[in-house]
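Standup notes, structure subgroup. Blocker cleared on the P-hydroxybenzoic acid input:
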Amino acid sequence: MAATKFLKTVLALLAAAFWSGAAAAQDTVKIGLILPMTGQQASTGRQIDAAARLFMQQNGNKVAGKTIELILKDDTGTPDVSKRIAQELIVNDKVAFLAGFGLTPIALAVAPLATQAKVPEVVMAAGTATITEASPYIARTSFTLPQATVPMADWALKNGIKKVVTLVSNYGPGLDAEKAFSEHITKGGGTVLDNLKVPLANPDFSPFLQKVADLKPDALFVFVPSGSGALFMKQFLERGLDKSGVRLICTGDVTDDDQLNGMGDVALGVVSSHHYSAAHDSPENKEFVQAFEKANNNMRPNFMAVGGYDGMRLIYDALKKTNGATDGDALLAAMKGMSWMSPRGPISIDPATRDIIQNIYIRKVEKKDGALYNVEFETVPNVKDPVKAAK
Ligand code: PHB
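Run returned:
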C-alpha cells in the first residue's frame, strides 16, 4: 500500500514537472543570434551582441506575456558554420527568430533554412541588395550598399569630381557598391578610370594603392567591410596617397565608428555616405550612445550596433502585434510597413521588399572634443534600395 502511494506521488510529481516544463517552453520565445564573435569580422559580432543586450536591458525580457531568451552563437564568419548553427537552433532549440548575419554569404547560406522552417531571418548587418530576395522570411534592419552609395556619387558629381577609381572588397557588397557608384557617376558625366577589387580575406591594399597613385584620379571611391577600414587607412597613409592630391571618398563602412578614432589625422576631412554616425544629432541618438557606452566600457556604437538594436525592436514589435504568436507568416506580415524613430533617424520596413527605408547622410570626418567623428552635413531622406526600386 505504502509502495503504491509512493509510486502515485512520484507519478504525480513527474506529471506536474512535465506540464510546467511544457508551459515554460510555450511561454518562452527564443531568438538565435548568429554572429562572428571571433575572426576578421569580430567587431561586428561584438557591436551587435552589445546592442541586442542593451535593448533587452532597456525594454525587459517580456513581450505579450512571453519571456524572450537570446541564444548567442559564434559562427566565426564562416557560412558553413552558420548553416549548421542555424539548423541546430531551428531543430533543437526551436527558435522563433534567427538574427544577426555579419556577412552577405552567411545571410544567403541560412536563407533556404529560414524558408523551409518558416522562421523569420532578421538581417542586422549584411548589405548586399539582393539578400531580401533569397527568402520571403527575411527582413533587414542594416542597409544596402547601393542605398548608401548612390548619394555618394551624387555628391561627387556636385563637387567637381570627374575622374574616379573605385576600390572594393571583392564580394557581394563590394560589387554592389562598385556598380552603383560607377553607373551613377558615368550617367552624370564622370569617367571611371579603373575598378579595383581586393580580396576579402587578409587584404593587402598596397599594390592597388600604387595603381591609384599612377592613375591620378580626382577621387578614389572605397568600400571595405566594417573592421577593415583601419588597415586600409594605414596603407593609404604609408603609400603617401594622403599627399597625392587624390581625394578619398567612401561609404561609412570605411570610416566605421568602431575604428575611426584610432585611425589618426589621416582620416580628417574624408567624406563618406552612410545611414548612421555616432555623432548623429538627435535626442534618441544621444541617449543611445550614452547608454551603449555606459554598458560597454566606453565602446562607441557603430552602424552595426544600430542595426542590431533596431533588429531587436523589429522582433519585439512584431511579437506585440501578433500578441505573442510565433507563426512565421504572421510575424513577417506584422513586420511589413513597420516604422519607428531609430537612433539613426526615421526608418521603416518596405512592405514590398522587407528591406529598410532610411535617411542617408553625407558626412565629413572632424575632430570633436579631441576625438574623430563622422559629422553629418547633408541628408538624403527616406532612401529605398535603388536596385529593387528599379525592378
Ligand atoms: C556584408 O558582408 O554584407 C557586409 C559586411 C560588412 C559591411 C557591409 C556589408 O560593413
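Discussed briefly. The radius of gyration is 23 Å.
Next: hand off to the docking folks.
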